[in-house]
């Protein structure tokens, strides 16, 4: 909470809560008071699910309701399925295949797959050699509804995003 508060005082405009208000609900009050955007990530301890996407959607629904209850306006809520957090290798691939199911919330979806271990497991590469794998997840994520991507290799991923956006949303020259 204190780090987020100080960051907002220094000019930040987004709070990224990797626990979706389950650990520090005051972050929603802070975001509401400061009119900051709030990223609500799905995360849990362990990787046990009775229904992966259903459980995640229920958790994100709770987080969104809590954020609204504590003063965050609808237009400032962003959701993140939390690739790599409280998920197994297989879960991460399933989330990528089913990313469009998170559109039910009518909120921007942030995708953070850059250099993640599931890419390394598929390609058998160390983190600093996962550019192409990251590009694939970014392009496919955009095709499945991702609105925002968090990446390491900014220049290359801007190009991937522009191309994927042109295909998915249409290209307007100029």
Name some characteristics of this structure.
174 residues; 7 helices; 5 strands; globular
Low-confidence stretches: none
Structural shape: globular
Q: Span between N and C termini?
A: 43 Å
Q: Which class do the helix and strand fractions yield?
A: mainly alpha
Largest sheet properties = 3 strands, parallel
Strand order, main sheet: write it out: 1-2-3
The helix count comes to 7
Description:
- The structure is a single chain.
- Strand 2, helix 3 (52-69) and strand 3 (77-80) form a beta-alpha-beta unit.
- The chain is globular and about 40 Å long.
- The strands form two sheets. A three-stranded parallel beta sheet has the order 1-2-3, with helices on one face. A two-stranded parallel ribbon has the order 4-5.
- It is mainly alpha-helical.
- The protein contains seven helices and five strands; from the N terminus they run αβαβαβαβααβα.
- 46% of the residues lie in helices and 10% in strands.
- It has helices at residues 2-9, 26-34, 52-69, 89-97, 117-123, 131-143, 154-169; strands at 14-17, 37-41, 77-80, 110-111, 148-149.
- The longest helix has 18 residues, at 52-69.
């Amino acid at each position: 909470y204190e780090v987020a508060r100080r960051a907002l005082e220094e000019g930040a405009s987004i709070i990224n809560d990797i626990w979706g208000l389950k650990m520090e609900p005051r972050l929603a009050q802070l975001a509401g008071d400061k009119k900051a955007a709030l990223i609500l990530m799905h995360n849990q301890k362990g990787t046990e699910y009775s229904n992966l996407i259903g459980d995640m959607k229920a958790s994100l629904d709770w987080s969104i309701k809590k954020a609204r209850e504590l003063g965050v306006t609808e237009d400032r809520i962003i959701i993140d399925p939390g690739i790599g957090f409280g998920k197994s290798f297989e879960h991460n691939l399933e989330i990528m295949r089913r990313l469009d199911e998170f559109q039910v919330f009518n909120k921007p979806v942030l995708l953070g797959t850059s250099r993640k271990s599931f890419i390394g497991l598929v390609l058998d590469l160390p983190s600093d050699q996962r550019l192409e794998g990251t590009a694939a997840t970014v392009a496919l994520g955009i095709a499945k509804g991702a609105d925002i991507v968090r990446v390491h290799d900014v220049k290359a991923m801007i190009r991937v995003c522009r191309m994927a956006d042109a295909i998915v949303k249409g290209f307007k020259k100029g």
